[in-house]
Amino acid sequence: MILDGKKLSEKRLEILKEHIEEAGLYPRLATVIVGDDPGSRMYVRMKHRACERVGIGSIGVELPADVTTETVLEQVTRLNEDPFISGILVQLPLPAGIDTEGVIEAVSPEKDVDGFHPVNLGNLFSGRPRFVPCTPGGIMTILSEYGFECEGKRAVVVGRSIDVGRPMAALLLNADATVTICHSKTKNLADEMKSADILVSAVGRARFVTADMVKDNAVVIDVGINYDAEGKLCGDVDFDAVVTKAAAVTPVPGGVGPMTIATLMENTFRAARLLACNPVL
Ligand code: GUN
Fold this sequence. Notes:
- Helices cover about 40% and strands about 15% of the residues.
- The protein has 10 helices and 10 strands.
- It has helices at about 5-25, 40-55, 70-80, 100-105, 120-125, 135-145, 165-175, 190-195, 240, 255-275, and strands at about 30-35, 55-65, 85-90, 155-160, 180, 200, 220, 225, 235, 250.
- The protein starts with a helix and ends with a helix.
């Protein structure tokens, strides 16, 4: 089975649009982008387009690559204090020389729709999530919407980043899976991967996951966005080979990516409701 993240994201966005209309709220997302990396700019444009589609307002703050950390912090503080902004997203990576951790920690946890603030990551790891990072959050939605239970399953996450691997492991653990996190120093990586009922790859290497690393009937989630030697977009998973062995696989493109954006929209609506419950004005 191919797990169609594009189609699922369309469905979730339609439902979200209705919920926003019914709530009578006007959520607003502020994005902050530093520098002119074309990839980052494209992602931010896609996020603004999704906002428009579901009835979320959006503003974009664009800063030149040579700004100081202080300038970025000033902008974040201004957005924190703006009662008309429900969610703040600082597009990563920030240019070298900017204190990324300092900027992430400056975002008010109540507006942290990326879920990267240590308070939100702490809540997630203590089993009481509020804002969940969008990529792993979207993956959990794929699993539940397609009816894959996590309880008692062996889940293996390859990659230990703050935005994907670590929160993914916490979410799977919260859903009662038995979770292993693998990384560049893991011994017998292929054996670990082969033990997985649910395998999540966030490695960033083109077609790294081959069919011999996948258990029969596993659910395989591909977080990679890579380009092969011919310049073709592909994931971490050797899709054509793995799809014949696994129970289900997410394609690239059209798998995890669209669900990341849908989850960002859901988080922004959640932030607006939170703000409506605790009005500043
Ligand atoms: N850069 C790549 N993915 C993401 C994401 O999910 N959030 C932010 N803020 N930056 C990113």
